[in-house]
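Kindly inspect the following:
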Amino acid sequence: MARILVVEDNEMNLDVLKRRLERIGHVVLHAEDGLRGIEMATAEGPDLVLMDISLPGIDGWEATRRLLADPRTTDLPIIALTAHAMAEDRAKSLAAGCIDYDTKPVDFARLVAKINRVLAVEIRA
C-alpha cells in the first residue's frame, strides 16, 4: 500500500493512527514536529502526509507551505488532521495547500476514504 508520514506530537493520537493504518497495509512514518516533518518528507518521499496543525516549533500550516514551496515535495498530497474544527480552520488549511482536511477525534472510516481518494488520484496522475 502507501507510505504515510504522520506529523503528530501527541503520542496517543500517533499510536492509534499508526496501528490502524498499519493494520490496513500502510507503512507509517512519524515526525513529532513541523520541522522534523519537513525533513522526513524530503528524505523519505512518502506518498501522503497527515499533518497535525498544532505542533511545537512551526505549525502544520507553515510546514505545509514550506513543503509545497520545495520542488522536491511540491506535489506531495497533505491532509490536515486537527482538533481545529471551525470553518475558518478548514479554509486556512486548504489555503496553505492541504489537499483535504479532517478533524480529531478521528473518524477512521472517513479518514481512510479520504486517504484512498487522494492516493487513487495520485496513482492515476
